Amino acid sequence: VKLSTRPPEPVIPAKKPFKVELVGGKRYSWCTCGHSRKQPFCDGSHKTRAQGLSPLRFVPEKDASVWLCGCKHTSNPPYCDGTHKQDFIASAPLHEPAES
Fold it and tell me: What is the pTM assigned to this prediction?
């Protein structure tokens, strides 16, 4: 039983960003917990595996090719800021999604 009131820490599903083509005006939900099987986007896994975390919803202004964070530790969510290159990410284990 967890007694902490702090939200859980995200797991690391990838140690590199995801290049995606975003459509301007479309709503996206970026996974913040790392448990989604549809990385970098949310599939609702946080509801059972990371209660306290929720996806970051965003709407790009225009069509764009972007790099979305895969390590879930960016300082500029949902976009990659290079944090995955730091030792604490490079030396951390990758999270393998649980079977459904």
Answer: 0.89
